Amino acid sequence: MRNLICGGDVWVEQHARPLSQAVTLIGPQPRGAVREISLAVRPYIQQMKKEGAKAVLVGFSGGADSTALTVATLDAGMRAGLHVHTLTVDHGVRAESSAEAERVCAQARQLGAYAHICHINMAQEGGPEAAARQGRRAALIDYAARIHEQEGGSCVPIFLGHTLDDQAETVILRLARGSGTGSLRAMDACRYGKDGVWVRPFLGVRREIIREAVKTLGIPWVEDPSNFPDGPWKTRDGSPLRRAAVRADVLPLLNRALGQDVTQALARTAANAADDDDALTQWAWHEYRNALREVRHIGQEDFEHMPHISHMSDLQHDAHSHSGNCERPALTPHNFSTQPLESAPETHMPEWDKSGDPSPNTDQPECDCAVQEISDKTYATGLNLSKNNTYILSVSAVKNLPYAVLARVVRLFLLEGGARAGQLSSTHIRQAVDLVKQWHGQGPLHLPGVVIDRYGKGKKAYLKCGESPVNDLCHASRHGNVAR
Fold it and tell me: How many Å apart are CA 178 and CA 167, to the nearest integer?
């Protein structure tokens, strides 16, 4: 087995012998806080092993949370016969960050991990929190792919150290933006997406328990100054980073004002929102399939003016295939897969352990849309009418749905047409829904990645959605009709 250490874009191979220090530290019968972190990780290691993984990757910053996660994952992973890799990302924003990353990497190797370092240059656009998160996420995805190529197996799941306290902070941040259930569900304990498998075993564990465990184990950790309001990073207006401010000021104030610890309650809100969002998404899938079936009743003459669509037989064939041959299992927390259909067969669905799941998901692009998460919770299903990826949806089949369900149906329709999930906002979704509910001749709408318009009348009315060519966007921008 070789250990791959990355410095910039250059990979250096060196032989490494994993040590068993983590297994020794945890021991066969851990107690107290150490037992809690061990029990939190073991079910996910067992699940990944069951699903065919041969290695896991832990995001290891050197902080208390990721240190506890690394030790517990090494212990459980080694016992299960999995190789445990760690990745330490150096953002390069502090003079001492490179040396600090080297020390953290050395600590991971001492514990027994195959340790990696990645030095990144953060994007200049956006705030520092978002840029750092996106950089870490991209590095983790890249390293998981490289490790998977080397070691094989079904996948290389990425383990992250977010805690129940992080979940509560995320709920507050999203409440402040007026988010709906799709966003208030915050982070999932286990999320299967097109960009990999993301596991957060500590979402049901308090931060204080994790710190107690690390102290008991006698392992030093690094305090990230950006986690404090007076840290080196600020927002554009010079105020503290939002999450740091929530952690230091908002949550303590809520606790004092309400006379209780609200962290657990906020985590329950996330869990309840996740349950509601799953139910609404399942309902939306059912209605979406019905809408695809309804397309068969729209006549050939209604499509003659649409480019590249000339044969009703093709339409009927596609609609029939969707109505008869693409039944999918109910989307419940126990079989929810966010992978595309072709790469996520029904026999390989994840089993969510919601005991600690009070998805994304602070590592994911966020929007104010009530259906933000559906971008990762869909299979490729749409009714593709032509070689240029044009999709249609029956208006009459969906127009009487409640808004929460209709918005999910429309967003699913847009995503299948080629919309860029991370850029779709609640405003975009509402404008598209208005083509169904409040249509008075408006359109076409130029949304991120797609153009959507309404055609036909009465029961033969339908929406058409297709990828937006660059020249169409430029034309729309010049004429001021790009949806903002």
Answer: 17
